[in-house]
User: Fold these one by one.
Assistant:
Number 1:
Amino acid sequence: GAVVSQHPSRVICKSGTSVKIECRSLDFQATTMFWYRQFPKQSLMLMATSNEGSKATYEQGVEKDKFLINHASLTLSTLTVTSAHPEDSSFYICSATSRGSQPQHFGDGTRLSIL
Amino acid sequence: GQQLNQSPQSMFIQEGEDVSMNCTSSSIFNTWLWYKQDPGEGPVLLIALYKAGELTSNGRLTAQFGITRKDSFLNISASIPSDVGIYFCAGQLREKAAGNKLTFGGGTRVLVKP
């Protein structure tokens, strides 16, 4: 149980392109989803918390207009990196939880490479 | 933001050895979680701890929630090659004000002895 699917697993695109990443909870309803960014050989850095039906809460230093998050249903959240540039290249990982008392379960991540 | 102090940063294992890693924090948490991450994948939950003093096992893995609520350790007994990977501890407050966010340690990279 507690399977989280993330798509696509890898994206390579030109600078200036907007990229959408999907995060789905396959066998449970995710009231809260989280988006992380991970640089090579580093830990996970929380970008934003997304609650179904409400606006995402962004961590300090994360541009909300750059990283658009939508959590329209209890099984789907999307992260859109708008007008991506090479410095946005990273490993983006989502997690989901059915309620606050339950552990977060992670997707397999999306490797984003901006040329 | 706040980060947990996880040690060691890396370690080499030989098959059959027991290994141990730990996390400490300057503030308390009411949940401790241990995850393993393989290259190019997301973290996978290994053990969740909800109560101070709790000792929990999952196969060859054993983790404990420190009595002060500021630390936790993970032991792997009789290590095998597939134990290689990066292990992360994470603390959670489970309070509405904290947004149920996780605070991650820096990770322990487990490698095989050449």
Number 2:
Amino acid sequence: EAQVTQNPRYLITVTGKKLTVTCSQNMNHEYMSWYRQDPGLGLRQIYYSMNVEVTDKGDVPEGYKVSRKEKRNFPLILESPSPNQTSLYFCASSLSRRSYNSPLHFGNGTRLTVT
Amino acid sequence: GENVEQHPSTLSVQEGDSAVIKCTYSDSASNYFPWYKQELGKGPQLIIDIRSNVGEKKDQRIAVTLNKTAKHFSLHITETQPEDSAVYFCAASSAAGNKLTFGGGTRVLVKP
């Protein structure tokens, strides 16, 4: 089944403890992206990647890191999480590098709580 | 950068009535406007989209309209059903196509 898989679905951690949220897609998509969803703010882009080894900042990149060593994987790394990073996170992928050429496919989300 | 505003934030309708969600965008160069539906516990899923060279597009009970001059676009759902209850997001694509900017979302509740 074609899908974007995120893990874990739920994560509770403490301030400063490094964590990684994994994202994998099995559709051979070129484009991958991370978003955070907060009430009233919609989906805000954190980082995106248009190709292996190519990543770029989105609108809210502070406090996050990403890597794209393989086409299928795009992990999100929080080196020193803080409470303001408590949010619902989505990974998404798209066949085309251009957002107007093919739709985004989203994972089912990771709910992160930082205490 | 692009700014997309979406209204209303919540919408309650009676089953069978119509629902309308409106979005405005700031970048006149934006050229692609998708709508995503997010069901509880899931990621958003594309339901319909419209390009800047088209004024209206329909797909069964849903339709989108685009007014480029006014920089706003709308989603119309007719004959609403309980399964239409979800959060809906509008978005606008940058002219370069390297990012989508989303609106704040509309929670739609269809009452039986």
Number 3:
Amino acid sequence: DVVMTQSPLSLPVTLGQPASISCRSSQSLVYSDGNTYLNWFQQRPGQSPRRLIYKVSNRDSGVPDRFSGSGSGTDFTLNISRVEAEDVGVYYCMQNTHWPLTFGGGTKVEIK
Amino acid sequence: EVQLLESGGALVQPGGSLRLSCAASGFIFSTYAMSWVRQAPGRGLEWVSTIRDSGGSTFYADSVKGRFTISRDNSKNTLYLQMNSLRAEDTALYYCVKESSGTSYGGFPHWGQGTLVTVSS
């Protein structure tokens, strides 16, 4: 199975400051069609997960442009350019290149 | 608007069975693959199972293979998860998730609110 490793586990941030979450996979996530199937999800307290980013860097409809995804191969990053109070929650990366589909352990973003 | 309404969660004894349902609306159900993802209390997300649009292909996590069965009734716009031989470690909030197309898997663009399964004596 592909192991997804996120860091840090917890990320205290100051409002208005940038934040960055790392996600590393144990195998390359490049599929035979040339695409890299790496998603990012946000789970606010008490809510269902919401997809923010798909295929590494494509932002979902309605997602603020302060969220961006980057990376390639086995190394990926979610960046928040200026953290707002509504960004508090747990962020998960997930790969859907290989079966079984696997999630990272999550990164908890909180306000300092 | 996509709506996914899960039901069927309950308290069940170890070794027992349960069937979860997910009523879908707001999209053409028969043209999208569907999945179940679970989250144990205070823990992260775990993919459980996926079924393609026609129901002809199904996929399972090793942790549930042989015990859980995913199915769908496209005439009723409903997704199911039959859960047998339940264990304490199956205790979780089970989310119904709509895929991006009939045969794409793991995109997970739309999630339901979840239904809680508790396995305990």
Number 4:
Amino acid sequence: GQQVMQIPQYQHVQEGEDFTTYCNSSTTLSNIQWYKQRPGGHPVFLIQLVKSGEVKKQKRLTFQFGEAKKNSSLHITATQTTDVGTYFCAGPDQAGTALIFGKGTTLSVSS
Amino acid sequence: DTAVSQTPKYLVTQMGNDKSIKCEQNLGHDTMYWYKQDSKKFLKIMFSYNNKELIINETVPNRFSPKSPDKAHLNLHINSLELGDSAVYFCASSPDRVRSTEAFFGQGTRLTVV
């Protein structure tokens, strides 16, 4: 079945260091979405990428969608303690009826 | 106003009991979902409802049954609870299932079966 894989599963950084999480789908995606879940919280939508090769920025966060629309990455520049949480990528299933989530990358930041 | 609200937030119950989790969205969305998040944070789609019709039913035990009295509500009923059902259950909604637009999640219900 369709799978969305994410690496790494965990990442610990010192405050100020950069962080990247990678997402790879077994199938071509019509779009890819990124969510952030703070500890004890619920997933919150960050962004959606639709076009092949698309790059979008939100302040210190940079999102990329691969040329083949099967992979994506989220890069955080100069992490802060407020960046702590689990970052999920998600793509529509092949029927376009629900989002399939990657297993997430849990980021911890020490000051 | 809370966009997607689910109750209760915490639920502790014994094995074998039957329980329900309620979910309501005030966003006017057409599609609602139930996701299960296990201890490793894996979010697994359980059910999806679009305009009161079940459109996804993942391979979950038939002890789990979604019930949607109207477009704004999707409740989850669980019969004969088992230890392995312990998890966080998230309700979510989205405006358009065809384009799989962004999903809005509720606060989650942490279910503990003892």
